[in-house]
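Predict structure. Chain length: 264.
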Amino acid sequence: MKIERGILLIIACVIFSSHPIFARPTYTGYSSAPGCRGTCANTCHGGSGGTIQVSGFPSEYNPGETYTITVSHNGGSSIKQFNGSCRIGNGSSNAGLITAGTNTATYNLSMETNGVHLSTTDRDNCTFFWTAPVSGTGEVRLYIAGHQGNYSGQNTRIVLASNEQMTDIDDDNSNMPSRYALLGNYPNPFNGSTVIRYVLPVSSNVKIEVFDILGSFVETLSDENQPAGYHQVIWSARNLPSGAYFYRIQAGDFVDSREMLFLK
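Prediction complete.
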């Protein structure tokens, strides 16, 4: 019996070794970020030495600003697939908002609710948009994990950190606004999300609503009391059709509205 079990064990090992486990480029949510589905490109297989690189992610971010991030490679095979996400510090909370760009699509999973990857495999480069979080967020980290070539090709893992730009405010409050103002939104036109900026001279209840071109109500972005100062709110239109939209602010006796253009 011991000899037979030994023979069976040897046969099993031979069968297993002749069927290696490869990376799975169709998997999503494996950006290597805390709280994601995995710690490497697509599974924990494939080789090292990948040449995927990331550009456009700032070393210091301006809260609310939108940045164009480019993922490409500088040698070897095309990018089979990558997964990316941005988190606050070393934690698993999302930092800002990622929206799709050229050759990319966003995904929403239970453990990675704002991820991005290639919309189709085997691309040499792609872009996506990252809108930085609100003031006071602090350090954020972008996680990118990618795979090149065939199922046993190279993996790349990239972690980039960005610190919030700090704005000095005089102790005498000389930089505080003296009147209400709706500063507009940027970018405009936009793809995915845009940042609406406004200022309050005194603490006020702020209500911001979005309407479509026909005047139909779309969404309420804010309806709460806010302190005096400079403010911003991010609006994501990725589930809506392209076209013109209007946003309106009501704060105290102040009412104003602007037009914005969403282009997919």
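Summary: The chain has two domains: 22-164, 181-262.
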